[in-house]
Design a protein that fits this description.
Length: 637
């Protein structure tokens, strides 16, 4: 398959498409504050108004199966988080680690594995608070671990089709290109003999196909981080202090219920010893007070544990099934109540009817449908039992509330300030089995999609988008997460950016710009050595990805890579896979990949930290990928 000579000439529509695309990229580089989704939407609108693409072609990306699949996977990941699966898995894997080396080893095994099957952004969102909590307890700066979390999630996501949106997008483009070649054959615009070899290389990816290169990259990259990369990470001790600064300390009493997993464990085994930001003061057992608490004291059902600690650590305590606040005995124990409750903070105003009354006599549940968990006053924690504290104006109350409490009382004269505690929403742990089952069903279904006949009776089951939407719907129907949370979990910024980028990519293809650029590129470099073309394409992809959106770069370069392979007479698959991998393996800048940006604030990182740790990794990944790609996907048709 080769280009006719006139493909080297760029038409006026092609120049317009190139100009708009370059403008979008330049604005992204020079004006960081401009929303990416709005910028790409503007580009699509401009190309449509200028007549480069029709409105149907420009907006087709919003109904693209790959975009729908990504949206569904956001919901599936949220369901796993809402049922506590991700929290419990992360805490079990990291909770008992005592050194940075042990913590890294467990992060390497868990993050690589989980991010292969769950969107890597969701994995990083799960592990950041777990790592911060571990760092608080062990007195370790989070700057020692959070960049590795991001890099491990990136590398793990290259092991399967569903680990990252980049792979899903490239796979969708492959299927579209395959279908387009089929239509050309049906319309008589090409014979099957003319495109047989090339056409066969455009089939969609199987679930583990890209892992043939992604897995070796992930393993080698994780070893680099383990033995060399960690030594290049900053050790910002000021971040340890920031973990404890500006935090209100509370005295809180927790009741150990019979079904709690801490029953019959020692304080040490339960992980309640040496907690940074939290201290177990005493155990009240049927009127007998055990204090000071020793590591070998065994916890029993009915024990009342008296802690002093910061609010974020109390949130973590509340997430332990069967460990509940004991200050308010109207605490919601039912499943319905558990689903609706969360923690909020409220500051009492002088006009509050609670001033002068004790917590026990305040009837807080009857007045506000909320329960007092703990009290904080004048920058000091209260040292007496919660129920005996006489409330004063300015007291900060940690409350167990139901959803809607903040909106209902935000403007009440009873409070100066009302706010929800971030991350305190209850986990539906009793439905963890269902969310895990649905995840395995999704994985099995996605594996089967590449084997099912797309034109036979199983055609409805052969779509990854349908598989993702069906499982996401079952997550909601099975009450793994409320519909409102499912909607909120869908990152519209990402989806709109991808959909609009697909419209711009369509303009580059329809105008002939990508074909002409590919033809000129092959003519300049030469078609004798496909490996040179592969190396240059990979470097180009990595360079763009470090400053632009990874999904957008993959979309823009996809058609270019296919047309380049066609012009040179080689198989398009190695070039397409180079784009998929190059657009994912981003380590040099915080803006190159969303997960890098997610850990920048919590880790206290500066842009130079990413470059110092990432440049050897980027070179290593490039060498491994460029050696393996031609072996796994040969150049010859």
């Amino acid at each position: 398959m080769a280009f006719p000579a006139d493909h080297a000439v760029i038409t006026s529509s092609g120049w317009i498409a190139i100009g708009v695309t370059l403008t979008v990229f330049l604005v992204m580089v020079l004006r960081r504050g401009v929303p990416t989704d709005l910028l790409f939407l503007g580009g699509v609108v401009a190309l449509t108004i200028l007549g480069v693409v029709s409105p149907q072609q420009a907006l087709a990306g919003f109904a693209n199966p790959a975009v729908l699949t990504i949206g569904a996977l956001f919901v599936v990941s949220a369901g796993l988080r809402a049922t506590g699966v991700l929290d419990r898995l992360g805490n079990q894997l990291l909770g008992s680690a005592k050194t940075i080396g042990q913590a890294y080893g467990r992060l390497m095994a868990s993050v690589l594995t989980i991010s292969a099957f769950i969107m890597n952004t969701a994995v990083v969102a799960m592990f950041v608070p777990i790592v911060l909590d571990w760092c608080r307890r062990r007195g370790v700066s989070p700057s020692r671990l959070l960049i590795p979390v991001s890099y491990l999630a990136i590398m793990g996501s290259t092991c399967t089709l569903i680990g990252t949106s980049t792979n899903i997008i490239v796979n969708g483009l492959l299927k579209e290109e395959y279908a387009a070649e089929e239509r050309r054959i049906e319309l008589g615009q090409a014979s099957y003999e003319d495109v047989e070899g090339f056409h066969g290389q455009l089939v969609g990816m199987s679930l583990f196909e890209i892992g043939c290169v992604g897995l070796p990259c992930a393993l080698i990259g994780s070893l680099y981080l383990c033995f060399m990369g960690r030594r290049l990470l900053p050790d910002r001790t000021d971040m340890i202090e920031q973990l404890d600064e500006q935090r209100r300390e509370y005295l809180v009493e927790m009741l150990v219920q019979p079904e709690c997993r801490l029953v019959n464990k020692t304080v040490e085994e339960a992980g309640l010893r040496h907690l940074r930001g939290l201290f177990l003061l005493e155990i009240n057992r049927e009127g007998e007070v055990l204090t000071p608490v020793t590591p070998n004291d065994t916890l029993r059902a009915g024990d009342r544990l008296i802690f002093t600690g910061v609010v974020t650590t109390i949130v973590d305590l509340e997430k332990i099934p069967g460990l509940v606040p004991a200050a308010d005995m109207t605490y919601e124990f039912s499943r319905e109540g558990e689903r609706a409750r969360q923690l909020s903070e409220a500051v009492l105003s002088p006009s509050s009817p609670l001033i002068g009354t004790t917590v026990r006599r305040a009837n807080f549940r009857r007045r506000y449908n909320a329960g007092v968990v703990a009290v904080h006053r004048n920058g000091k924690r209260m040292k007496r039992k919660i129920g005996d504290i006489a409330l004063e104006a300015g007291d900060t109350l940690l409350l167990q509330t139901r959803s809607g409490f903040t909106d209902r009382y935000r403007h009440s004269r009873d409070f100066y300030l009302v706010a929800d505690v971030a991350g305190s929403e209850a986990r539906q742990t009793h439905l963890a089995w269902l969310s895990v089952t649905l995840l395995f069903v999704l994985i099995g279904w996605l594996m089967a999609t590449s084997l099912l006949d797309r034109s036979g009776p199983w055609a409805g089951f052969s779509s990854p988008a349908i598989a993702g939407i069906a499982i996401a719907g079952l997550m909601v129907v099975g009450r793994c997460l409320p519909l409102s949370e499912a909607r909120a979990s869908v990152d519209m910024h990402v989806l709109v950016t991808i959909a609009a980028a697909l419209g711009i990519g369509k303009a580059l293809m329809e105008s002939g710009a990508s074909q002409s650029l590919a033809h000129g590129f092959v003519g300049l470099v030469g078609s004798e050595n496909p490996y040179v073309l592969l190396v240059l394409l990979y470097i180009l992809t990595v360079a763009f990805t470090e400053t632009l959106s990874n999904a957008a770069v993959a979309i823009m370069l996809f058609d270019f890579s296919v047309q380049m392979a066609a012009a040179a007479g080689f198989s398009p698959r190695p070039f397409v896979m180079a784009i998929a991998l190059g657009a994912s393996l981003s380590f040099l800048t915080p803006i190159g990949y969303q997960t890098n940006l997610m850990v920048m604030g919590p880790g206290g990182y500066q842009p130079r930290d990413y470059f110092r740790v990432g440049w050897p990794l980027a070179i290593l990944m490039g060498v491994v990928a460029l050696i393996l790609i031609p072996i796994v996907w040969p150049f010859e048709l």
